[in-house]
Amino acid sequence: MASKRKRISVGAAVTAGLLCAATFSAVAGVTAAGAATAGRKPLTGTVIPAAARQHPAGAVAKSARVNFELVLQLRNVKAAQALVKAVSLPGSASYRHYLTAAEWEARFSPAAAEVSSARDWLASEGFTLGAVSKDRITISASGTAGQIENAFGTGLENYKVDGRTVRMATREMSLPASIAGSVAGAMGINQEVATADAATASTAATESTESAAAASTSPFPPAPPAFVTAPPCSSYYGAETTKVTPAFGSGYPSTVPDEVCGYKPGQLRSAYSVGSHTGKGVTVAIIDAYGSATIAQDATQYFKNTDPGNSFANAHFSQLDATPFDDEAECGASSWADEQAIDVESVHAMAPDANILYVGAQDCVNGLFNSEQQVIDNGLANVVTNSWGDDAGDLLDDVATKTAYDDLFMLADTTGMTILFSSGDDGDDFNLFGLSSADYPPSSPFVTAVGGTSLKIGKNGKQTGQLGWATGRSFKCTANVEGSLPGCTAATVNTWLPVSYDGGSGGFTSYNYTQPYYQAPVVPASLALRNEALDGTQPMRVEPDISLDADPSTGFLIGLHETFANGKVAYGQTRYGGTSLASPLLAGVIADADQASEAAGGAAVGFINPAIYRLDTASGAIDDILPGGLQAEYRVDNADSYVSATGTLQSFRELTYEGPITYCDETGNCATRTNTLTTAPGYDSMTGLGSIGPDFITDLSRF
Question: Is the pTM of this model over 0.90?
C-alpha cells in the first residue's frame, strides 16, 4: 500500500453486531477430504481452508487450461533444516561455510528415479510436460481442468476472495500410491494471486491502463497512473507543520508535522548509518512481476537529479524478463512498474556500487516462483529482495506452495544467499479477510520478513525518531468532496470524518510453522502462543523479523515514467512507501554488510535471522521501536487520487494506530475489532526486533 491511491470503498457501513469473522472450523479448514480409493492416497493440505471458500463464483470450465508445477519431496527434509541451522547460527563449527548448489542438490534433491516416475504418471494422464527444475523440486505441466479433476481426484470451482475470482480445489487431492509418497502436491491448481505492496493505483486509472496494455505491441505493460504529491510537504521530518482546524481532539496535538515530500538517497544513507559502505562486488536480485521499458532510463535520470555522486551506471543494471507476460489484467500489470522503481532505486540508494539484477516474472500467479527458482538455482545473486506476497497466505496457501518455496529457500540459505520479503501492508490482514493471518512467503522460517516503521529524518540527515508503522486516517469533509466522499454531507462540512485503518506493517503468528530456534529466547510467549486455541501449547513462528521505513507519508522519492491525467506519458518524481520500500532498503544494507564481511576475509552473511536475533542484545546494532504516545501527521492529496472530485483532500493521520479495524465480506456483512499489532520494549508484533541501528552493518559482518 505504497501511496494509498486506492479509491475509497462505498460498501455497507459497519453495523454493530453484524459479524462475519471466521469460526474455528473455517480458520482451521475443517472439511471432508476426498475419499481415498483403492490404490490411491490423499495429499494432506491440498485443499484451501474453508475461510477462503465462503463465496463460490461458478464452476471452472472442463476445457479451461491449467498450468501447474508438480512438487516433489526432498529426500531428507530434517537434514536440510539442520544444515540451514549449522551454516547460519553464530558459534556453529559450520557457520558461514556454505555448499554449492550442486552439492546441496546431490544431498537433498529428489532422486532421479522419483522424478522419472512422476513424469511418467503425468504423461499417462495426458498432461503436456514442461521442464524439470534444476533443483528437481518441481516438474512443470499443463492440462485441462477436466484432466486435473480426474488425475488428482478432486473438483475445481471458482471463488471470490478479497475482490478477486480465483480457482480452487473443492476437496483434498489424491494420487496413485505408487508416486504419492514422493509428491507434496501440485502448485498452481489452487490459485494464489500475489500482490505487490505498491500496487494501489485507483480503480479508474487501472482500468484505463490495462485496456491500453491489451492494445499495445510492447512486451511491457503501459506506464502506471501518475500519483502526484500535493503540497504542503516537507524536505525533512518536521520542517513544515500545520495547525489543524478544527482541532482533531482525542488528546492529539493541534499542530502536527506535514508529511515529507519524499526522502532522497543521501538522507536514507545518513539516517541508517551506511557510511562508506557501497555494496561493491555484491549482486542484489529484485524479483517482481512484469517490468518496465524505461526503468534503466528512469533510474539514470532519478540519480542524476537527486544523488549525482552515485551514478546509476555503477549498478551495472541487468534484466531477466519472462516475456511474453500474461494475466496482466488480473495482476494489475501496470502497477508493478511502481514497485520496480521503488525496488531498483532504493537498493541503489543504499548500496551505490552493488550490481542490480531485475527479474521480471511472467505473471503474479506461478511466475513469481519460477523467477525465484531461476535466481536461487543458478546462484545469480548474493541478496534477493521480494516486495510481494500472498495476503493471509500463511493460512490460505496450500501445502504444495509452501513446500516448494521452503525447500527453495533452504537451498538459498545453505549456499549463502540472503532472502528478504516485505511483510505486507495490511497489518494482520483482518481488514481483508475478517481473520488474522500473516502473509506468505514472509511467514516462512527460512526467510527474513521485513516490516515497517515511520522514520523521522531531521535537517542534518540523522534520525530524530522512529515509530511503528500503522496509520489511522481521518479525512476532512470539505465542500469540494461533499457527496463523493463517504460520510461527507452538507451537515458534516468542515469536520473530521471518523478514523479508519489506512495500513501498516504486516505481521502475525503463524498457524503452520513452529517457533524457529532463533526466536525462542527473544519472542514473548504471548505472541508465540497467540494461536494456542488452534495450535495448542507449541510456540509458533512470529513475523516480522526486523523493520525499516515504510510509512508512505515518510516515504521515498522515486522517479519513473507515469501516465498523467491528460493522457501524457512522461517521467515524474513522486513519493512511495509500504513494506515494499522496507525490503529493498534492507537488501542494500545487506549488500553493504556482505562487502564488509568479504573485505575482512569472511563470507557473505547469508541467512541473517539467527544472527540478528542475537544482535538484538548488542548495543547499537538494533534500534528498539517503542510506543510514542499520541503522534500524528497532516497530509494533503489531490482529491482525484481517491474520489471523483477536484481540488485537494486533507487527512489527519494517527501514527502507530491501535484503534478499530473493519472488514466487510462479499455480501456486505461487516465485523470490527481493534488492531492486534502493537509496539513494545523488545520484540513486538508490529516491528519485530525493531530497526537497524548505527552498528548494524559492522556487527552483522563481523558476527
Answer: yes
